[in-house]
From TrEMBL:
This is Helix-turn-helix transcriptional regulator. PANTHER family: ARAC-FAMILY TRANSCRIPTIONAL REGULATOR, TRANSCRIPTIONAL REGULATORY PROTEIN. Pfam families: AraC_binding, HTH_18. It comes from the Bacteria. SMART domains: HTH_ARAC. Gene3D superfamilies: Homeodomain-like, Jelly Rolls. Keywords: DNA-binding, Transcription, Transcription regulation. It comes from Flectobacillus rivi. The keyword rRNA-binding does not apply. The keyword Transcription applies.
């Protein structure tokens, strides 16, 4: 990962929590909105963020993809993603925020959460409409989590973690049932590792051959895997992640285009602008104005 730094506004949990708990927050969503009315603007978090709607309409945006708000819809966000919302009429449900460290002492697998399909950094996979009876089961999980948080009994945080994991598994099992993966396990593991490497190195490694070397496979093998199972070549997967990071950084108007180009390791501002316009259809300045 590049050691270049960009300073942009990121919300942390203690900014949003009345209890100043730096690792966890749970609230009914209507009350959360009342306390934080300015959160409709595009922003990014330093924590995991999930919202389960039980009432409401309008839309919300995750990493620049728009989704209609519906009752019994849940969305999941990982640290670094950008989102905003615009609601119509009464809105309610539940919100849970937790830090990257929240589960570390509880789970032996440091990257356990990355196994869930909705924590894969792809906006389209992170918004799920829950059908009956799962939506009622998930609602029950949130009620239990609220109760545990309010009572503050011994082991309350461990109980909350247990309830969250049970909920994640129940939702992911529905997602897997609805979207069967006809892909051999070895190929699936390779693609997951490729995506993890892109997350780690997209500011410094731009070529498929560099990732293929880290995966101990040939560039042709990597391209064939991506084309068969993702519908695009490896180079496009890498470029899409670079474009997404550029869009996220453009949300902060205090960061200059040249600073973003430098952070993403482009040779100069002009080359970055040409790259961005080619893949987005608008210059960085035009895209920023639209936001």
């Amino acid at each position: 990962m590049s050691d270049k730094k960009i300073n942009f506004p990121i919300l942390d949990i203690c900014t949003l929590s009345e209890t100043r708990d730096e690792d966890f927050l749970v609230s009914r969503f209507g009350a959360y909105l009342e306390r934080h009315k300015n959160l409709h603007h595009a922003h990014r978090h330093s924590f995991y963020h999930l919202v389960f709607f039980t009432q409401g309409a309008g839309f919300h945006t995750v990493d620049f993809s728009n989704f209609d708000v519906k009752p019994y819809q849940i969305y999941f966000m990982i640290p670094g993603q950008v989102h905003s919302w615009s609601f119509e009429g009464p809105i309610d449900g539940y919100v849970v925020n937790f830090s990257e460290e929240f589960f570390q002492s509880f789970l032996l697998k440091a990257e356990y959460l990355a196994n869930f399909s909705f924590f894969n950094n792809i906006a389209q996979d992170s918004v799920i409409n829950l059908s009956f009876p799962l939506n009622q089961k998930v609602k029950g999980f949130f009620e239990e989590i609220l109760e545990q948080a309010q009572q503050k009994q011994p082991f309350a945080h461990d109980m909350i973690k247990s309830l969250l994991i049970q909920m994640f598994i129940a939702i992911d099992q529905q997602t897997i049932t609805e979207k069967p993966k006809n892909i051999p396990q070895f190929n699936y593991t390779l693609l997951k590792n490729f995506q993890k490497l892109i997350e780690k190195h997209h500011t410094t490694l731009k070529l498929p051959m560099e990732y293929a070397e880290l995966l101990y496979i040939t560039p042709n093998h990597l391209n064939a895997l991506c084309k068969e199972h993702l519908g695009m070549q490896a180079g496009e997967v890498i470029r899409n992640r670079i474009v997404l990071e550029a869009k996220r950084l453009l949300v902060n108007k205090n960061t200059s285009i040249s600073e973003i180009a430098y952070y993403l390791n482009f040779a100069d501002n002009s080359y970055f602008s040409k790259f961005f316009k080619k893949h987005v259809g608008a210059s960085p300045e035009e895209f920023r104005k639209k936001i």
